[in-house]
Amino acid sequence: MNDLRALINLERYPLDQPDTAAYRAAISAARDDLSDGGCAIIRDLVRPEAVETLSAEINDRKSTTHFSTQLINPYFHTVRDDAFPDRHPINTFIERSSGFIPGDSWCLDDAMTSLFRSPELTSFLKQCLGVPTLHCYADPLAGLTANVLDPGQQFTWHFDTNEFAVTVLVDEADVGGLFEYVPAIRSTTDEGFDTIQAVLEGGREGVRTLDLRPGDLQIFRGRHSLHRVTRVPENSSARHAAIFAYTLEPGVIGRVERTRQLFGRVLPEHVRAENKRVRSDALLD
Rounded to the nearest 5 degrees, what angle is found at the Cα of 101, between the Cα atoms of 97 and 103? Predict the structure, then answer.
């Protein structure tokens, strides 16, 4: 399934006609939202029939999901650091219980793959983000994934290692499974530990909750914004979201430790990339 018109609502979002007023308006709105709070929602970008196809593909491949339950801090660390006090984000560990369907589970002719690799979608996202280039994340496991939250699971407060993430909600939970975030809670010069700790302890100051629907595409700057997906109750259906990862440079491969946490394995590509890695900032991961 690789017909763009069958996947995307081109009448509302003419991604194949970048010179139109509707295209420019969509980009302008997304840029405004990203500037305001680091998050933009492109409502109903994916057609309802295509959402059904994505859901079927996720469910067909759900047996390949790597599920894991860990107590993590916002930086995905699992071990206490005695250099910091007990009441500190580095030593505050909360349950992360979720699963990821890895990138090598998808076929080239899947709707998931067609959307992810669509040059029209990539160009549109590049314009929304205001970056000179955008490339599909080359990581063989984390480039194209689906996040699975089964009943009883949650993805607790954390930061992303990359500057931005692109997701499409495919199956929403009956109850719970809400995306929440605190925009720009840290910066390259200030880790914001006190503010982060207040949120980890249940504080709601600055917390935003999104009203996402199946078919909505979300562009999110998660490097500096603390975020989570709330627990899906035991009496709810599962929550499934497609994750389309992009990078500013071509050929980028994910970090070994984070890859092993999320997918339960690493490939030779990850080891080679780790040996060559150069950090882009000094923020905690």
Answer: 140
